[in-house]
Amino acid sequence: MMRRAFVLLAVSLGGAPAPMPADVRVGVFGLFHPGALAVSAAEDAISLRSERDGCVLRGGDQARVNLDGGSVRVTCAAAAFSARSVRVTGPSGGPADLEVGVPGKIGRRFHGRLDLTSTGRELVPVVSMDLETAVASVVAAEQIASTPLEALKAQAVAARSFFAAARGRHHGFDFCDTTHCQFLREAPAADHPAARATRETASLVLAFRGAPMAAFYSASCGGRTRTLADAGLEAADGYPYFSVACAYCARRYGGDRAGHGVGLCQQGAAALAAEHGASFTDILQHYYPGTTLEMRAPRMN
Q1: Distance between CA atoms of residues 194 and 300, nearest Å
Q2: What distance in Å separates the CA atoms of residue 139 and residue 197, rounded to the nearest whole number?
Q3: How do residues 2-35 score in pLDDT, each as one tens digit?
Q4: DSSP assignment of 86-135, as one string?
Q5: Under a CB-based contact definition with an 8 Å cutoff, are residues 127 and 28 in contact?
């Protein structure tokens, strides 16, 4: 049995720690460079609106969105209009359950608000979603459901920490849905292990010197995680990323890595939980030595 370690729930010097923004803005389907999108209401009605025009979709209705020069062209059953930008929300302007897809290629269901703009060459769909929804979506995309719960909880903290510390990685939105930022699919059901791991670690982030850190992670480290310099990544005045041993990957993969090998090793974390009874705090202390956990409540919008 792995020794249980005490992890400090820290607060920053000079008072309570700064809260995290409640929502994150995620650009989706960027790899497909979409020239057309299909938008529909997943459950209740949704509203598509520009500054001047709009339409409402109800269950089963679908809107087609196309490029119109530098504008966005929306075609609904009852209306058609073009605008520089279009926002998709619930009828009262709040988040909604909606389905968005690139026709013939990919479709996903999201809960949030959708903004549609155009670069002139492609449509740019950006989903604004609750932070915890985004975290659960990353955990479900990054890990299989049978992964030990404590490893899923460590993944949730790492994903939330990255969202808290690394905003503004793209022009017009904070994050993309690829491994350039964090791999993200649609949100898991409430009874999915990824959703449970997210709930049970809600608001917890990794911190270094009192500030949230953009926690890196990869699939397997080959037996020892790497420093930023080892991985050829640019070092900054932040967490130094120590090289730590990973017995499972050394035994299983013998030096072969999957990913950059910096920070949390997903295969090693699962083995620590399954074979040694490690808690998520044990796992985080192993792969991110010198960090603390902070409770950061989201800031209300």
Answers
A1: 24
A2: 8
A3: 433 333 333 332 334 556 668 899 999 999 999 9
A4: EEEE-TTSS-EEEEEEETTTEEEEEEEEEEEEE-SSSEEEEEEEEHHHHH
A5: yes
Q: Which residue has the tokens 């959703």?
A: 195
Burial (0-12, 13-18, 19+ Cβ within 10 Å), 171: exposed
pLDDT at 69 over 70: yes
pLDDT (mean) for 82-105: 95
Beta partners for residue 10, in sequence order? 294
Eight-state DSSP code of residue 9: E
Contact 34, 123 (CB under 8 A): yes
Report the candidate in 154, 153, 184 with the shortest Cα–Cα distance to residue 169: 184
How far, in Å, CA of 18 to CA of 23, rounded?
15
* Pairing mode, strands 85-89 and 106-118: antiparallel
DSSP state of 134: H
| DSSP 3-state of 29 | coil
CA distances from 79 to 41, 51, 97, 216, 258 (A): 16, 15, 22, 46, 49
pTM above 0.70, yes or no: yes
**CA-based R_g, the chain, Å:** 21
Contact criterion met (CB below 8 Å) for 155 and 143: yes
